[in-house]
Description:
seven-stranded antiparallel beta sheet; three-stranded antiparallel beta sheet; 19% strand
Amino acid sequence: MVEALAETGWALFPAEDAVSRWAHHARAAALDRIVTDAAHREAWLDCEGTWFVGVDTLLNDRDGALPDGPPLSGTAYEAARATYGALPLHAGQVSITYPGYPRPRAGESDAALRYRRDRDAAHVDGLHAQGPDRRRHLLERHAYILGLPLSHADRGASPLVVWEGSHHILRRSLTEALSGTAPEDWASVDLTDIYQAARREVFDRCTRVELPASPGMATLVHRLALHGVAPWSEGAEAEETGRMIAYFRPEFEDVTQDSWLTAP
């Protein structure tokens, strides 16, 4: 599986009992303390009610354990730790999509909505759009993306999407853009143009792969892989809770190193 991650940019792990137990507890915590919380709904329910973004809302510890719940474990998480080190986990994202996704996000232009609908809002995490001109800068240096489904849903219920092999193209382009700049200064480099050019190359050359998954399964996505969320297909069904996934994106801790570009 780790070899597949390095080659294709993604790996899908079969269901395991330990992961199922963690997902069951995380789902209950999300439904009891996050999704129904008025402040969270005000902050995170977007796209006209079809996406609960839920960044940093899961109350786990640095090892992924929730209060009174089992520790986060499983082949995917252990493989990530073996490859990238025992990086501390942030509060997990609880991402929930509902039938009708995507509707326009608050303040989103028509062009941005078309990109969300037609290109799955494909992006590389950590490259943030800033300022009125939406220029892209590297503000978060994730090591990997770990996705843990929390609900059952049809294959067409807004699955995660990855462009296979796209991390090779992004790595080459971003290495060129950041060459000559010390790693601790990478956030100052405007990556917009080279990032957009790399995305166009990815769309031309790479295969789009949908990765539907159920509780107990896990996905690992390479930090430089172009990925997004597919629209909710007509007729697709899910539990009343919607399609729920918890995501972890731990960051490399030493910004003086070039790990974000050079690690496996």
